[in-house]
Amino acid sequence: MSGDTPAAEASPASHFVPARWTADSLRGLQTRSPDTLPLLSQADFARVADDLDIWDAWPVQTRGGDPAPLATGETLWMALAAPRFDDPDERHSHARIHLILRSDAGWSDLGPAMPDGFSPGSREWSGSAVLSDDKRTVTLYFTATGRRGEPALTFEQRLFSARATLTRSADGWALHDWRDLREIVMRDPDYYMDSMNGSGKVGTIKAFRDPAYFQDPADGRHYLFFAASLADSSSPYNGAVGLATTEDPETVPWRILPPIISADGLNNELERPHTIHHAGRYYLFWSTQSHVFNPDGPSGPNGLYGMTSTHLGGGWTPLNDTGLVLANPAASPRQAYSWLVMPDLQVTSFVDDWGDKQAGDQPRRFGATFAPMIGLRLEGARAGLAR
C-alpha cells in the first residue's frame, strides 16, 4: 500500500495537555544521587559478528510485551545493524533492521529482516515487532528514514508496518513473504513538527520515529508510542513522546493523538519511548543523552528516564521526582545507550563508548553489541537498579 494515502485520522482532542518534563524536576539531580550502572570491561560483552555493528534492539514480542518464546525455547530479536566504519556515527546512514536469535549460546545474526528493496526508506530505524497468536505472523512497526533512491540522504521519518511469515527449516528461523507494507501514522501538524525541520547535525535531528507497540491490559486497546518533536514550540529543545491508537491493528486505521509527554525547553530527543504495565501502574520509559539537553538549563546524564501513572491517558509524574532511572557510571558516561525495559523488568541496551575514562582510557571505543542484561526495581513512583 502506498504511503501517499493517509492511513490514520487526526484526533480532535485539542483539549489534551501532555505531562511536562521540566527543568524544575531535573534540578533535583543536584541533591540526589541516581543509580548507576556497573562499569563494563571487555570480559562483560562479545560482538555478535566481527564485521557488523549492532545497536538499538527489541524482541519479537507477545501482545503482552514479553519476548515471544519459540518452539525451540529460543527468542527472536531485531536490532539496527550496519557494516563497521572507522567513524561509528556513519552507521546511522546505512542502518538496516537485522533478525537476531537469542539462545543459550548467545546472540546470532540471521541477516536483514526485510529483503532488499522492500522498505520505502533509504535506511531503516528503530521500531518494535509482535508475534501473533498463530505463532507464524510477525508484524513489524518501524521507522522508514529518508526515501529509497533519494540522491542525498535526508532525515525525513515515517512510521510504517509490514507483516511476514515466520518459518523454521534446517537452515534455522527466517521471515518470509513480506507483505502489507503501509504508512500507519500520519503526522498531525497541529501537534508534531515535520522531521525534515532539523539539521543532520548530531543532537539537532527532529523526531517522528521509534514506534513501540503496547496493548493496554485494562481495555485491550492497542497503542504506538513514538519519539516526536512539538509543532508549537519556540525552543529548539522541543522533544516529546507521541501516541497513536487503534481498536484493532488488523482492520482499523491507527488514529494519531496529541503528545503524551513534553520536554519543551528542556530536551531535544526522547528516544525509543515505550511502556509496560507493572503492579497496577503504567511506566513510560525513554532514553536520552547529555548533549541534547538545553545548555541554558539543568542537564542530565546519558541514561534511562521515565514517568509513571495509574492511567494511560494522563496523570504522568517523573520517576524518582527527576525522571532519571539509571545513569551510566561517571567513569564511562557514554558506556551504554538505548535501554528497553521488558515486563519482567529485565533491561536491554547496547555497548556504546565504553572504557574507564577516569583511568585514562580516552579514545572512543564503540562496543557495537548487546550490553549485559540488567534488572530494574519498580516501587510505585521510585525506580532503580535491582539489588
What does this structure look like?
- By secondary structure, this protein is mainly β.
- 1% of the residues lie in helices and 42% in strands.
- It has one helix and 22 strands.
- The protein has one helix spanning 23-26, and strands at residues 19-20, 52-61, 75-83, 96-103, 106-112, 123-131, 137-145, 157-169, 172-185, 208-215, 222-229, 239-246, 255-262, 271-278, 281-288, 303-309, 317-318, 324-327, 336-341, 346-351, 374-379, 382-385.
- The strands form four sheets. The protein has an eight-stranded mixed sheet, with no helix packed on it.
- A hairpin with a 5-residue loop joins β6 (123-131) and β7 (137-145).
- It is globular and about 55 Å long.
- The model is unreliable at 1-15 (pLDDT under 50).
What tags apply to this protein structure?
387 residues; mainly beta; eight-stranded mixed beta sheet; 1 helix; disordered N terminus
Give the uncertain stretches in residue-range form.
Answer: 1-15
Q: Give the overall average pLDDT.
A: 93
- Rough shape? globular
The oligomeric state is: single chain
Largest sheet: 8 strands, mixed
Report the end-to-end length measured between terminal Cα atoms.
49 Å
